[in-house]
# Entry
Amino acid sequence: MPSQLPPKENNLFKRVVKCYEQKQYKNGLKFAKQILSTPKYADHGETLAMKGLILNCLGKKEEAFDLVRRGLRNDLKSQVCWHVFGLLQRSEKKYDEAIKCYRNALKWDKDNLQILRDLSLLQIQMRDLEGYRDTRYQLLKLRPGQRASWIGYSMACHLLEDFDTALAVLEEYRKTQEVKSYDYEFSEFLLYQNSVYREAGRNKDCLEHLEKYEKQICDQVSIMEVKAIVSYNLGLKDKAEKYYRQLIDRNPSNNDYYTGLVKVLELSTDEMMANLYSEFVEKYKYSHAPKLLRLQVTSGDTFKRYVGDYIKHALRRGSPPLFLNIRPLLKDKTKAKIIEELVLDYSHNLKNHSKLLTDDENKEPPTTYLWTLFFLAQYYDHFRKLDVAMKYVEEVLDHTPTLIEGYTLQAKIYKHADNLQLAAKLMDEARSLDTADRYINSKSAKYQLKIDNIEKAEETCAMFTREGVSAIENLNEMQCMWFQTECAASFLRQGKIGEALKKCHEIDKHFTDIIEDQFDFHTYCMRKMTLKAYISMLRMEDILRSHPFYFKCAVLAIQAYVSLHDNPITETEEDTEVNSDGLTAKELKKLKSKQRRAKKKAELKEEKKADSKDTNDKKKADDNAEPKLDPKKLVQIPDPLDQAIKFLRPLQDWSAETIDTHLYAFDIYYRKGKYLLMLQSLKRARNIDSQNPQLHINIVKFALAVKAKADLNKAVSQVVETELEVLLEGMKLQEFNDNFIERNKNSIAHQSAGAEALNILNPSASDRVLQLCCNLSYDHIETELPVCAKVYKNLQKDTFGKVPESVIETYRKSCSQLFPLAAVFQDNQTASETNEVVSSLSELSVK
Amino acid sequence: MIELGDITPHNVKQLKKLNSVIFPVSYNEKFYKDVLTSGDYAKFAFYNDIIVGGVCCRVDSSDNRRRLYIMTLGCLAAYRCLGIGTVMLKHVLKLAETDGHIDSVYLHVQINNDTAMAFYKNFGFEVIETKSSYYKRIEPSDAYVLEKKLK
# Structure
């Protein structure tokens, strides 16, 4: 069918297009109707497509797709029809499909600017970089007068690491620019151009470029930073030193500048570095950075003097972050000891003489003593000497019961002591003392989630979320991921797998949304010339799921799906769970059908509401159309392990350096019976930490699985056999385990892993298993609460076969002596005492 | 170092904490509700940015007189003798003076509280009355009434 309309209809068609562009959708539809009601043109493809496009904007998606498809069928050679179809696909976020449509459209109108621009946006969004470059080249050829054409093409080359072309195009463009006295956008352009020189490794050009255009660049810090680094790369030490010193003078609190300078000056010994830092300590008295850096490179008496000065100053100032600054030093045992002795001495002197040192001239204010006690509580908490930490924090609160930090610290200590009830109670106490502080409010909510009190957590958060909306919804909308992650963890603990998965999927969607949100920036950044920021955004989005928040969420999702695989939930099960309050089968049936009807009605109502809403706002219509996550449906899936793999993939891609990634990968592939993939995960984990306790158990499980499986494909079995020998270090399985136990004698985590492995290998060796895992005589056993708790739970769950009650009880008693505060080891009496403390605390807060 | 700050619904629980450790008497909910509406007549004392004391008064217009009554004035044990009480009391006296229509400032002190007696006498307060069995649940239960005349 020919697409050409006679003049009258053609005019109408133009008006349809115009109405669409001006968002006068109703008029647009009117004109379209006028054309289509002429019998001769009832099937006019482009008009049908345009009508569909307008309807799509009005939220009538299905009708829209119908019309556009019909239009396209009637006029396959029309760029309009293809373009419209592409736009529809794009609005559905089917970008690959949309790209195909645009390409088809271009076949019939290869120089259509609008289509080329739309196509380029999709290509960069999908990171089809080569396609993007070609499209940008087309645009540059067609519109050489536009700034965006030049920048777009050079950026495409830059992303493809074709630096020479990128730089040539940028330079051509630069030549056309007039020099004005102040032009921020041009300044951004120059910095971008410069960054391409640097990435291309052309240090000399980079430096010359900077020196030449220095006056036109507004961002002075960037200039100096680049100059310093590039001068260093070029071996221009004097220059580099000069620039670093200038930078330090501008901002003496930036660690990078100091480390940069150390590199330039080739300071090889600690003493040389200490001298350099001392120079800056003298010069910038208020700056922490050189002082803290100096503490890293000094030792013995010098260290003692410097660290003493630093701590004394901070204690006098009442600076709660003191401990955070000092903490990195505690990795060094000698330094930790020095600090401990110093501060103990201070606290002693303050208590008896109100002085930090006995020969100080003036007396200290009481707050100095307070912060000294506070520091000691943090110090002992760090080393998990929790009883000592508790003693100090109690002293803090006796001294100043209005110090909110005291309660938060006490809550934290209880958390480390595994007494979450008390921890949550205290954190809420802290919150109640300053209800305008959102930080403590969030902390309190988090602690409520740790004791699975989701309702209270929501109430707490609601004090700060928008009124009129439920807090949970608002937090989801705000992409408040910590809250959702803790919720997911809590649901998982409670066995509410569906709810947990819902939260995980919500978090996953935040990441998808963030990637989606790039779209608007492709045009915006180009227009605003924020090119450096744009490039770094693109690179950040590329690895978005490497974020620790994603890791946490993915781990929970994997655990949930794996447990779903191990214990599938059938529909009936779930339902009986919900309605188990003594109803007869008949009543139950009635109730259920009633519920179903009510639900349907509600759904219908909602749909209607969505329909009747002002649908001009396309985005809103989109959101409404998105399927809601239903916890019940999330657990009724045939392939939980495949779902788990979806969450695992990004971890393998972006968090491969974390051993947990590969341990979880094993968990999944073990259940799927995928031998090569199991092997892959074991090898990757082994490269990170060959002595990891869980890895050890996994290797043993793998070896047994291989042994049990007779019908492996020959090629696979060969690989597996060879690699298994490497994993077992040429030993027999039993020997391998004995060796592991022997080799890691001093670690309870390893010993209990060895015991677990032994139990798998030889279930009849239960005496030795118990002896291994119940042993508690290790150095620093006080830091091993999580392992002990795990062993205790394993004993209770009969993981090691039936264990006599008396053995479990003995283990519990010894542990409760080691960890007197831990709830998990408390007997009923102590537990009820704890409850009393909890309730007395709540009385206090009522009073 | 020493500063005065407002008592608000957000931090009023700190006042409860303070009072519960400083005074042997416990105050009811109404007391704390009133405090929130008394503006400058109720203040926290901050020492190095930490709340360590508080003062709460109200205007008492009985017997055809307008008098300022100090309900509580106190500071945590660890922060005594640093001039915090003085700052709070001076604040109260100044309020009373700027008001212009206040005849006197008065308060109750438990008869064995020598430090408090010395403190107030230092600012020109005088004992005008001894009330026996003023306190209900603490010993000694008698109290002095101290007053400082402004007019």
About this structure: Chain A touches chain B at residues 318, 365-367, 369-370, 399-403, 432-436, 845, 847 (CB under 8 Å). Confidence is low (pLDDT under 50) at residues 574-583, 610-625 of chain A.
